C-alpha cells in the first residue's frame, strides 16, 4: 500500500492490499515496533505541555499545574492500556471502546495542545484485535494532526467519526488545520501501512484549505 499523499484540494489515496499470512506477520512485527516509537512521541508532547504549564503557572499556581499534570498522566495510562490490549479471542463494544479512546486522547494529547476534540461513535461489536489496530491507526492520525496541522492553535478542532456503512467500519479523523502539502512519510506512514494490511483495510484521504480528512474502511469481517 502506498503512503498517504496530501495534494491540495484533491483526493489523496485509495488503496487496498490483501495480505498473505507472511505479510501479516511482518506487518504486525513492524506495527508493534513502530507503535512503541509513537507512544514515545506522545510522551514528548505531554512533556512539552507540562513545561509550558509550569512556566506559566509561577510559584502561586504550582498546585493547579501539578493537578493538571496528574490528570494527563492518568489519561495517558488509560490510552496506553487501550492500545496495548490485543486479545484475539474476544469481542468488544465499538462505542465503549472508541469513546474511551477518544476521551483518553483528548485529555492526554489534545487538551494540553489546546485542541478541541469532537467524536461521534456508532454502537456495534468487533473482534478486540481489530478494534485495537483501528485504534492504533486513529491514534497515529490524531497525533500527527496535533503535531503538524495547527501552527496557529486558535479554533483548532479534530473530529473523530466511527460508523458502520454497507458492511464496513469507517473510521474518520478530520482536522480544520492548514492542510498537508506533501505525502505522509516516515514512521507514521509505515505504521498506517502495516496496520491497514493486517486488517484488509482501505484508506482514503483528502486535504485542502479547510484541513485534512482521512478515512479508514475495514470490512466488518476482516479475518
UniProtKB/TrEMBL annotation:
Ubl conjugation found in the keyword field: no
Keywords from the UniProt entry: ATP-binding, Kinase, Nucleotide-binding, Phosphoprotein, Transferase
Domain of life: Bacteria
Record field: catalytic activity: ATP + protein L-histidine = ADP + protein N-phospho-L-histidine
EC number: 2.7.13.3
Domain called Signal transduction histidine kinase subgroup 2 dimerisation and phosphoacceptor: residue spans: 34-108
Protein's UniProt name: histidine kinase
Source organism per UniProt: Bradyrhizobium centrolobii
Highest classification ranks of the organism: Bacteria, Pseudomonadati, Pseudomonadota, Alphaproteobacteria, Hyphomicrobiales
